[in-house]
């Protein structure tokens, strides 16, 4: 049976279908790989976090170490000097900033329920007398916020399930009970008590295991960072020898891609940490200048969260606005908070980031937002959000190398 070959139009449709199927398979493989990576990160987080923090710390301290090495200081001595200076800075910050931070955190934790109950009332007061410059939609939004929590039913009856036996209740033996009945009651009591004791023991051991893991991870961070700095030159020279590929064009391509990705990772983490520190300092100064409570706590929170672009700025702004509304109950202080936020973001966008990071990461803001959403969804948690941007930058390296730009031969 002779089957006629497809016509030109049919061949075009077939190739289009095959191309679409191939793209769907590639996308599915990428999503599955990211999902699997997220599960691995979830399980290996206690191991990965100390290594990641130590790597970022080594990236931050490496320029200072290299400066001392160029001045003829032995590398080991330079690392010791840099670590000593870092310890002095941490101790100075801990002695000056940490006490105030603890006080503000404790006070905010004690007043958190008060803030939650007063926010609708403050919003209602502001909505009753909106300023002339506020748009109508903004007043309606604040009016809707003022109704939160006012329609909840306070007469809620909670029915608890019946408990057959209370382990804390003593076992009473009536005169009519036999010794066998008493032994059965004791056996039933012990049988019901053992699972609860086992659950309590499991929770206690889990708590101590978590605390020990955190302490061990924090203790390993400086050790990892020290050896990363000490062995940097050896790692830079010899890491290509450990690739399971023979010397060939394939190995050269792999080396080029890995080095490009490593440059993006170093540039991103080193630059983003410095940007986060600058933002935290600016937010603290700005909030103190406008008299906002918990300014130091908000600045430290901004420093920690701004490592993830956009998320830290949004969280800091919303938290500061809530505190300003509840603490003052006027329009001036929330407007001042927005002014501080606008000034800091302008300085970050036009001065800080161009000076620190330049175009070394080169990702569009929309790409960063999409990468953050995909990273937090597939990889999960803060670690997924932090890794999303360098992974997107690595994908950009591959796309520019093999798809978007024609390869230029040396």
Please tag this protein with its features.
410 residues; mainly alpha; 78% helix
Structure, explained:
This protein has one domain (24-128, 194-404). Helix content is 78%, strand content 0%. It has 12 helices and no strands. The longest helix has 63 residues, at 8-70. It is globular and about 80 Å long. Residues 151-165 have low confidence and may be disordered.
In short:
The chain has 410 residues and is mainly alpha-helical. It is 78% helix and 0% strand.
Topology:
Layout: H1 8-70, H2 75-96, H3 98-110, H4 112-128, H5 136-146, H6 179-230, H7 232-238, H8 249-289, H9 295-305, H10 311-328, H11 332-356, H12 365-404
Helix pairs in contact: 1-2, 1-6, 1-8, 1-12, 4-5, 4-10, 8-9, 8-11, 8-12, 9-10, 10-11
How many domains? The number is 1
Number of helices: 12
Which outline best applies? globular
Structural category is mainly alpha
- Would you list the SSEs in sequence order as H and E? HHHHHHHHHHHH
- C-alpha termini separation: 53 Å
Helix content: over 70%
* Radius of gyration using CA atoms only: 30 Å
Low-pLDDT ranges: 151-165
Arithmetic mean of pLDDT: 75
Portion in beta strands: under 5%
Query: How many DSSP-defined strands?
Result: 0
Largest sheet: none
